Each structure stands twice: as structure tokens, then as C-alpha cells.
Amino acid sequence: MEKDYTMKIFYLESIDSTQIYLKKLLRDTNIQVPLAVCAKMQTQGVGSRDNSWIGLEGNLFLSFVLSIDTLPQDLKLESASIYFSQLFKDTLESLGSKVWLKWPNDIYLYDCKVGGMITNITGKNLICGVGLNLLSSPQNFSKIDIEVDINNLLKLYFENIEKKSSWKQVFSKYELEFYRNQNFFTHNNNLKISLGNAILQCDGSIISDGERIYSLR
After folding, report:
1. Can you name the residues that pair with 25 across neighbouring β-strands?
2. Strand, coil or helix: what is 211?
3. Alpha helices in the chain (DSSP H)
4. What confidence score (pLDDT) does residue 55 get?
């Protein structure tokens, strides 16, 4: 268990889902947050819109929980996936990666998805799940463009989180690359939505065909 910073991390060899495991810990024990669970292999990972996230061994499978009370005051929970994805992207970029973020929660390298983040609220806590292809990828996906030491990556990422940068600071970097979404799509209520004409709002939502869509997944 890493002790260089506030976040406690449990490292596991294999698990069905880091999200399920973490939620069970919160439900059945008196364990304190913040807390993270990282596995070398995941057999029943959960992605966006309840899709599965295929767990090939050696990739990153991470879930962590933070108290809502500790989040930046100007962060709308509906845009938490953008906030924590951007911090993750910043961390990878500091290590030399050229990844970018497809609205709202997908991590892309060029035109291929290499990872993603989901966020959900459980009581007074926010739970985030991160999947990232480090060594291998399923068909139609790709892997990241740098070699990554997971321990170092998590150390840097959680240090970035603990800076508690404001939403405004983080979003100002996110919006600079939003133009890269123009040839992609997102989903809302099981409908496929083009991002080509979407207008990004200052709270992280988008407006498409007159409808405001938020990013909490």
C-alpha cells in the first residue's frame, strides 16, 4: 500500500471489477476514503452505458473514491468525468503521451480509443473508474503510445488530484482541444449524437440540436 500521499491504494492480482470490489468495501466495512483499488487483470469490467470493458492482463484497471465534500467547490458533479479525465490526460501528457479526450469520458490516441473513465455517486462519495490499454488492446481499440510504470502513474495522478485545482482551471485546458471531437459521436438516451455541431458549455455540458446534455456516466 502506497503511503507517499493521502490516497490509499490496494493492489490486486485479479478481480471481477474494481468498481464492484470498491463498492463492496464501502458497503461492508468502515474503511476510510479516499481509497483506490488497482488490479492487474479484470474479468467483468464496466464501461460507459453499462458496456463491458475487456480486461486484458497488464493493462490498467483502477477505481477510486473521494468524498464529495473534498471536491472543488465550483465542480458540477455532472461534469466530474471531464474533470478527472482531464487530470488523467494531463498526467499522461507529462509522461510524454499524445492522448486526447473525446467528450465526455473517452481517452483517445489519434482516431482510436485507448481508455476511458466513468463516474458515479454513491451516498456522499464519488466513485471513478479508469481503464487504460497499456500493453494490449481488443479489436478496434488501441494501446497507449508510451511505456508506463503503473505505480508512478498513479502517484503522479493522485498528486494532481490532491492539488484540488478548480473546475475553471481544468476546464480551460479541456476546451482548447474540444475541436478534435468534430468527427466523432456520443450517445444520449441510447441515441447517437454527432459532436460535429455540438457547442461546449462552460459547465462541461454540450448543446446539440437545442438540447443540453451532461456528461455524468
Report:
1. none
2. strand
3. 18-28, 80-94, 150-162, 167-174
4. 60
